[in-house]
Structures are given as C-alpha cells and as structure tokens.
C-alpha cells in the first residue's frame, strides 16, 4: 500500500503537531499553498496561484499532494460550477 493510500485510509483527522509533521514532509510548493490557505479561508486554484505567485501547474500539483495527505478539502463553487474552492482542513 502506498503512502497516499495509507493517508486516505486513516480515519483520524490531522490536528496540531500531527498536521505540522505531515506538512513538513511535503514539497516547498505544497507548504506555500498550505500557508496561503491558512491566511485565506477559501480560494480557487487561480486565486491560490495569484496569491502565491506560483504557476498554475505547480499549484495543481501542490493541491493534489495536500489532498492525498488529507490536509486540504475542496468543493464546487456555487457561483461557477466549473471551479473548485479549496480550504485547509487541519481539524
């Protein structure tokens, strides 16, 4: 079983020190995206790219890594169903 599958099967949520440990092992782009989401509650992928000054492709990769670790959650935007809204999920 890969580490991403293991992370998905965990029932416990990341909190406090556990979240810090999970983020510490991620690439720098994922850390930056997590920090941007920490300061801004909910953003679209393009807003994250604008805030972080990272290319869209890098933001997409970072969001996938954060999602694999269960650190970020996403939902469809009510104003534009083509977009997804991302939120840091450390509870």
Structural summary, described in words:
The protein is α+β, with helices and mostly antiparallel strands and 91 residues long. It is 54% helix and 14% strand. It has five helices and three strands; from the N terminus they run H-H-H-E-H-H-E-E. Strands 1-3-2 form a three-stranded antiparallel sheet. A hairpin with a 7-residue loop joins strand 2 and strand 3. Helix 3 (28-39) crosses helix 4. The two termini are 25 Å apart.
Topology of this structure?
Elements: H1 3-9, H2 16-24, H3 28-39, E1 42-44, H4 45-52, H5 56-68, E2 72-76, E3 84-88
Antiparallel strand pairs: 1-3, 2-3
Write a concise synopsis of the structure shown.
This protein is of the alpha+beta class and 91 residues long.
The radius of gyration is 13 Å
Strand content: 5-15%
Assembly level: single chain
Major sheet, described briefly?
3 strands, antiparallel
User: How many β-strand stretches?
Assistant: 3
User: What is the molecular shape?
Assistant: globular
| Number of helical regions | 5
Mean pLDDT, all residues: 83
Approximately how much helix is present in the residues? 40-55%
Elements, N to C (H/E): HHHEHHEE
- What is the CA–CA distance across the termini? 25 Å
């Amino acid at each position: 079983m890969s580490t991403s599958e293991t992370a998905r099967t965990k029932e416990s949520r990341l909190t406090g020190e556990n979240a810090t440990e999970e983020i510490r092992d991620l690439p720098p782009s994922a850390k930056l995206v997590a920090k941007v989401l920490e300061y801004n509650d909910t953003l679209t992928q393009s807003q994250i790219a604008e805030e972080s000054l990272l290319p869209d492709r890098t933001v997409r990769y970072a969001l996938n890594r954060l999602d694999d670790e269960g650190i970020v959650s996403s939902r469809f935007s009510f104003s534009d169903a083509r977009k997804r809204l991302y939120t840091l999920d450390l509870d």
